[in-house]
Design goal:
It contains seven helices and eight strands; from the N terminus they run H-E-H-H-E-H-E-E-H-E-E-H-E-E-H. The chain has helices spanning about 5-20, 40-65, 85-100, 125-135, 160-170, 195-220, 245-270, and strands at about 35-40, 105-110, 140, 150-155, 180-190, 195, 230, 240-245. Strands 2-5-4-3 form a four-stranded antiparallel beta sheet, sandwiched between helices. Strand 3 and strand 4 form a beta hairpin. Helix 1 (about 5-20) packs parallel to helix 6 (about 195-220), helix 2 (about 40-65) runs parallel beside helix 6 (about 195-220) and helix 3 (about 85-100) crosses helix 6. It starts with a helix and ends in a 16-residue tail after the last helix.
């Protein structure tokens, strides 16, 4: 079987696995599973999917939601607070879901000026982040103390509510953030420097599940609201509505499918080169 045919079979399998959510074993030639992707290629794909989801959540849920009366707050899980998670906290919820998954993909959003000191970069990550602040290019390295493959992608201030929140927060160590600033970096970790294609499918499936879990957690929280938004097919831009988990994830898949498949094809053909995807990372 020719290499291109194997790649085509793998991509068809990816579509089935991710978009139809079939847990059954992949129907591909067993020999194809011997192909490997570098962890840099894998984490670039993960970062690109994360950026699309965060843009969707920031603009279509938080931004449009605030305009129709939905609230978003850092204390959204407190019983007395009727609000949803801010974009950065949505990412944290997804990261918590990833921690519970057998796939050993780690996700962390840090900064040199975080509101929470638990998100403060230190050591090698701080040194790498100083470079990212200068040129916005992603960094790939092995973290000395953990031995984990690590990738950092610039997190840019692309939404005014995120800038305002950080500037006005009483615990913020920096109060002059502006749109376009590098506010932090999404940081990914994985134990291996190469990943078989079939394991790549597991990683992407785990990442998609983490987005689903984070959004489902928000909808679950709305059940406690005095005025619960109608949940179904419509979005906040249409009024006091929220999309269901299925509708939200369908939009996630629509926005990420083409880019992820293109990146996989480029990687398979040995032409995967992209150093400029930092600007797609939204901060909030």
């Amino acid at each position: 079987m020719k290499p291109f045919t194997l790649i085509a079979l793998l991509l068809v399998a990816l579509i089935v696995y991710l978009f139809v959510s079939a847990p059954a074993p992949l129907a591909v030639d067993a020999a194809a599973s011997g192909r490997m992707l570098s962890i840099e290629e894998v984490l670039r794909i993960c970062a690109a999917e994360n950026a699309q989801v965060r843009r969707l959540y920031t603009q279509e849920i938080v931004g449009a939601g605030q305009a129709v009366g939905l609230a978003f707050d850092e204390d959204w899980k407190q019983p007395a607070v009727q609000a949803g998670p801010l974009p950065a906290l949505f990412l944290r919820s997804a990261a918590v879901s990833l921690e519970k998954n057998p796939v050993r993909l780690g996700l962390f959003l840090g900064s040199d000026f975080p509101i929470s000191q638990s998100n403060l970069f230190q050591g090698e990550q701080l040194a790498e982040f100083e470079g990212i602040r200068a040129d916005q290019d992603p960094r790939f390295f092995v973290t000395p103390d953990t031995g984990l493959q690590t990738a950092m992608f610039a997190d840019l201030a692309v939404a005014e509510p995120c800038v305002t929140c950080h500037n006005e927060h009483p615990d913020s160590p920096k109060t002059d953030w502006r749109l376009g600033d590098v506010m932090g970096a999404t940081t990914w970790t994985f134990p291996s420097d190469q990943v078989p294609y079939d394991e790549m499918f597991d990683i992407l499936a785990a990442l998609r599940k983490s987005f689903r879990d984070a959004y489902a957690g928000y909808l679950e929280e709305t059940e406690t609201f005095d005025r619960r938004p109608e949940i179904g097919e419509r979005w906040p831009r249409d009024g006091y509505f929220l999309p269901s988990v299925e509708v939200f994830m369908a939009e996630v898949e629509r926005r990420t499918a083409t880019e992820s498949l293109s990146r996989l094809l480029a990687a398979a053909e040995g032409g995967f080169q992209n150093k400029g995807n930092a600007a797609i990372e939204p901060a909030g």
